[in-house]
Amino acid sequence: MAQTIEGQKVKSRSLLTEEMKEGLRKLLRTEPLFDEPMSSHTTVRVGGPADAFVSVYSLDELRMLLSFLREHQLPLFVLGCGSNIIVRDGGIRGVVVRLNGEFTKISFNGTAVRAGAGALLSHLINAAADMGLSGLEPAVGVPGTVGGAVISNAGTATEYIGERVHSVSVLAEDGTQFEVDREALSFGYRHSNVLDFGKLVIAAVLELERSSPERARERIERLVEHRRRTQPITIPSAGCVFKNPPNERAGRLIDMAGLKGFKLGRAQVSEMHANFIVNLGGATAREVIELTEFVRRAVYEKFGVLLEYEVQIVGEE
Ligand code: EPU
């Protein structure tokens, strides 16, 4: 199969043989997508093809998939919402999986909520507010899934979802499930040790606080409004590109370096918030990544601060 990147024919190097594709079709409840462009599944809308892109709906189905991948020595990549990630133009070898169905369930028990890793944060936050529960507001407006948010400890610059995590359910590559308690978990700024315990997260239990639906909603509204005013939420982007350095804001440094609005091809440093790189339509991953590197160099030369990536850059050139 050939893929087109900017008019060029590029041979995709799929690891999947026709036999493996047939095997996947038989194994899964829904049709796998082969040579599926990741630009259709990432919020910045760039990225080459995944050899296979599949959804799984239950733990049994996920375990069968893991065993198939082990048998054929195929790599697995778990995708959440496709935010906070830049997939290179060569795409992802192996199988990209999205957790759906039972992995999106949310259930409350007093002030605790158990949420599947594939549940959308926005659903979780709204469901909690309906129940008069508060505490997830730092993650308001993050276009992510519960799994991705817990792994990367999503939040604002000062408050994180990790503070609410009571335990996580993880799955090892051989399909064994582990419940990991709070005491064993550690959360830092946009970082956690969750994946030290398994290959993927399948659910998390979060401990919330009693509030009222009105108060919870009012807080959500305020934070959504802040994002609407300060972030380019209507233009494709991967979210904040860099972590904030200690006692500083990456956006402020990039802004002071005079880079707001700077373009490379169809990628641009957002005019609204300098720590976002937006896709003006038709950008390649190469343009987006080269622009991030340019920004990093410029900030280092001007302020002597080497910005650390917050976005995950994955896949092949
Ligand atoms: N600023 C500028 N110029 C800019 C952007 C920001 O001077 O172009 C200044 C602002 O004026 C403000 C300060 O920098 O004084 C902080 O800006 P903001 O309130 O937007 O917060 P941030 O530190 O840039 C952090 C998180 C965001 C999160 C917001 C919620 C990081 C890297 N970023 O942004 O997270 O949405 O707080 O308030 O921690 C993400 O993780 O993808 C993300 C976007």
Secondary-structure topology with pairs:
Blueprint: E1 2-5, E2 8-11, H1 18-27, E3 33-37, E4 49-56, H2 59-72, E5 76-79, E6 85-87, E7 92-99, E8 106-109, E9 112-116, H3 121-130, E10 133-134, H4 146-151, E11 165-171, E12 177-181, E13 187-188, E14 191-192, E15 200-207, E16 209-210, H5 213-230, E17 237-240, H6 250-256, E18 263-264, E19 267-269, E20 276-279, H7 285-303, E21 312-314
Bound molecules: uridine-diphosphate-2(N-acetylglucosaminyl) butyric acid.
Uridine-diphosphate-2(N-acetylglucosaminyl) butyric acid binds next to helix 5, strand 17 and helix 6.
Summary keywords:
317 residues, alpha+beta, Uridine Diphospho-n-acetylenolpyruvylglucosamine Reductase, domain 3, Uridine Diphospho-n-acetylenolpyruvylglucosamine Reductase, domain 1, five-stranded antiparallel β-sheet, four-stranded mixed β-sheet, 26% helix, disordered N terminus, binds uridine-diphosphate-2(N-acetylglucosaminyl) butyric acid
- The level 1 CATH classification of the domain at 102-215 is Alpha Beta
The side-by-side strand order for the widest beta sheet comes to 8-9-15-11-12
Count of runs of 4 or more consecutive helical residues: 7
Q: Which CATH architecture of the domain at 102-215 would you pick?
A: 2-Layer Sandwich
Bound heterogens, unique: uridine-diphosphate-2(N-acetylglucosaminyl) butyric acid
Structural class: alpha+beta
Distance between the termini: 17 Å
Radius of gyration: 20 Å
Oligomer: single chain
- Tell me the total number of β-strands: 21
Helix percent band? 25-40%
Shape: globular
Parts with pLDDT < 50 across at least 5 consecutive residues? 1-9
User: Which fold name corresponds to the CATH topology of the domain at 102-215?
Assistant: Uridine Diphospho-n-acetylenolpyruvylglucosamine Reductase, domain 3
Q: What is the strand content? A: 25-35%
Largest sheet: 5 strands, antiparallel
Mean of pLDDT: 95
SSE order, one letter for each helix or strand: EEHEEHEEEEEHEHEEEEEEHEHEEEHE
